[in-house]
Design a protein that fits this description.
This protein is an alpha/beta fold and about 180 residues long. The chain is built from 7 helices and 6 strands, in the order ααβαβαβαβαβαβ.
């Protein structure tokens, strides 16, 4: 993993700093990995830099594409998809998190694609279940607050739900009116 800044503007500047890329290449050369796996962020400058290092050093690279379809209305997602192509064509194997993406990604990149649907992580939460604790009646939508996620539909649907059911929208980002 790479250290990052909390401030997104400083983080962007650090990602574009040539010295950081030189240090990354030097660290990879010292470590000499047998395989590199980039998990998401395929269009970020550091991912592109790692893809170049892998190609030069003939090191196999697996790239996990979180969502191979750019999110509508998101400039950052469109840029990530454009720059991510550079990284993806240099990967040895592409990994997608949903089987429905396997064939479109194979067609787009003409290379092996491994697809695995996500596994349930509910057991990590259910271990904290305690009998006798009253449950709140709620619907939780959690994740980055972006228009494409259909939050407007959730807000509209909330008016049809029982009055004692609380709707919570949580996550990073901002919502417009």
């Amino acid at each position: 993993s790479l250290p990052t800044e909390r401030n997104k503007y400083i983080r962007a500047l650090k990602m574009l700093n040539p010295v950081a890329h030189y240090r990354l290449h030097r660290a990879l050369s010292r470590f000499k990995p047998a395989l590199v796996h980039i998990f998401n962020s395929e269009g970020y400058p550091w991912s592109i830099s790692v893809a170049i290092w892998c190609k030069i050093n003939r090191t196999p690279m697996v790239l996990t594409l979180h969502d191979p379809e750019p999110h509508p209305g998101s400039l950052l997602a469109a840029l990530n998809e454009k720059f991510g192509r550079f990284t993806a064509v240099r990967a040895t194997l592409l990994h997608v998190l949903y089987k429905k993406f396997k064939e479109p990604v194979e067609r787009a990149y003409d290379k092996p694609v491994f697809a695995a649907d996500p596994v349930s992580i509910s057991r990590f939460y259910l271990v904290h279940r305690t009998e006798g604790v009253p449950r709140e009646k709620m619907v939780l939508q959690f994740g980055r607050l972006e228009y494409y996620k259909g939050i407007d539909y959730l807000v509209e649907a909330a008016s049809w739900l029982p009055n004692d059911l609380q709707v919570i929208i949580a996550g990073p980002g901002t919502l417009t009116a």
